[in-house]
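User: Could you check the structure of this?
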Amino acid sequence: MRLQFMLSEIWIGLRRNLSIAVSVMLVTMVSVFLLGIGLLVQQQVDTLKGFWYDRVQVTVFMCGPNSPEKACAKGTVTPEQRDSIKAQLGEMKPLVKNVYYESEQQAFDRFKEQYKNSPISDYLQVGDIPQNYRVQLADPTKFAVVASAVEGAPGVASVQDQKKTLDKLFKVMNVVTVGSLVLAGLMVVCSVLLMATTIRQAAFSRRRETGIMKLVGASNLTIRLPFVLETVLAALLGVGLAVGGLWGATAYLLPRVARVLPAAPLIGEGAVWVLAPWLAALMLVVAVLTSWATLRRYLRV
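Assistant: Sure, the predicted structure tokens are below.
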């Protein structure tokens, strides 16, 4: 099988079906881009989970002037009750790593700093957030143990678990990831159908040439291989464009995310290059299998 002959056949096929080959390339690019986005987002979610869950805290809010009467029927927490709560939390080591006291003024200042770009901070006053103990756990999943120990204690208004808030956030991000992967799967199906259509049209337009090749003794592999390579070439070009798009998206977005979350670990642009060979291998397998199956059905030589 001469290389020059094979290359000429591929060039003829691409030139005859240029518009469809470009369509295969573009559909492959979109499907691989969406698939890559979904996988990168899921990887980022898993990274952030480990980072934030290690820093998750349980907040024990103490009774203050604005606390609900049901939990704080006896009024504002006394210094003795506050010391008793701290001692009770201290006895729970090693489950409890650290306990930080936060006054009403400190709670107000921290909230204003965290939500300085949100209009909600304009309506907050000192005392709206009661004094509290922020408890760092050795194992964030053991929130119920700490909560049951201090909930209902004299001077305790409520116990808040930050992990529940983070779980809601990560649940939303997981839904977005699943949506991207489902859409990517549909686009891969579209790529398969378009590849099959391209092969079928190419085989029909070149049926005279393939017939002559068979008469002169060409093997099935020699006849079918140019069609397969045309599809593979279009698919790999699409993968290349998709990987370039993924790299551009991460290079553009990650620095902006880093400015908003300076302490959070980000996956980095290297994750794209780790993912790229797997995406290329996936589309290579899809292109070869689709092409060969279509040729066996429509190009009977």
